């Protein structure tokens, strides 16, 4: 029991976020992000883990920063608007209501450019993104195969029509040939002239 009480502060420290912490939750859960090791934080940033799944670009984006009025500033048009709030005026701790696509790394930056990082994983983010990507890939492949098949059939059909028309347009010529018998006779030979030779 005494050992558990000694480990409890360490476990709570890790669960709130630190330079190498990781958090996990489901959409609808609330998590606390803590800026550990940064004395006077000035801003928070977020880098999404799966930006393509939500149509976002890679890299960090500012999500909250300290202001001279003492009220932290959260941009009105950003993904965490209405779901992110500071738990203290010094933006040392934040509370975030999780939503799908929130997975990523949260950075707390100080005046000396030192930072604290917390890796957040929202359950379902990665699996959902992969399923969507594989589905789009398979549909694209099916469409490509269908187009190639249609092109092949059309090409072979056109080639067959051209070949048939060239045979139909040949000229038939009967030419007499002398027979090599003692009485003499004529043999008729049928010559078929291709269309290309008629021009």
TrEMBL record:
Q: Which GO terms describe its biological process?
A: blood coagulation; integrin-mediated signaling pathway; megakaryocyte development; platelet formation
Q: Which InterPro entries match?
A: G6B, G6B_V-set
Every copy of the G6b-B extracellular V-set Ig-like domain together lies at: 18-131
Keywords of this protein's UniProt record, alphabetized? Membrane, Signal, Transmembrane, Transmembrane helix
Signal peptide annotation? 1-17
Tell me a GO cellular component: plasma membrane
* A Pfam family matched in the record: G6B
Residue spans crossing the bilayer? 139-164
Q: What is this protein called?
A: Megakaryocyte and platelet inhibitory receptor G6b
* Origin species: Nannospalax galili (Northern Israeli blind subterranean mole rat)
